[in-house]
Amino acid sequence: MSDETHADLVYLGNKHTTLATLADNPANVLTAIAPSKTFNIPGLNLSTLIVPDPKHRAAITQIFDRIHISASNPFSVVAFEAAYRESETWLDELLLYLRDTRDYVENYVTEHFPKIRLIKPEGTYLLWLDCRALEMSDSQLKHFFVHKAGVGMSPGTIFGEGGSGVMRMNIGAPRHTIVAALEKIKNAERDL
User: Three-state DSSP class for 124?
Assistant: First the structure.
């Protein structure tokens, strides 16, 4: 199973490679895609499973039918199709905006937070801030960012042990909101 719901959000110069293209037997790879992340329409509750093997597809359909998961509603289908057919220019502009915001955050972090390192992503609107040089526990990191700075970020540990010492920052917002969040962190850091 490969969750590729962020696959459309790849910055210029990078390329997303689907897991199925790397598999010995691509028919055994189920791929999830959705317009929700790319086009900011999660409220329509629509995603797609790409299931190449007819037997696997029949088994999944049987389970969905048994637990009464419907395919979708008509509004979601129209939005899904419109997003992928008619929104290429919008997506190109979004990716430029996100890239510029990512670069702004990277420069700000480098200039103001010498003990925090941005793990520069090749895509998406989620950034990982490596805070291990601050020598705080994961609960101290969360407390600092969320309670002292007032910036809602997710601790990396919610994604597994490898996320220890790392915080996840969402930059999928107007840039002035991101700038304000960085200023809050800078002001809170003075108290450390």
Answer: coil
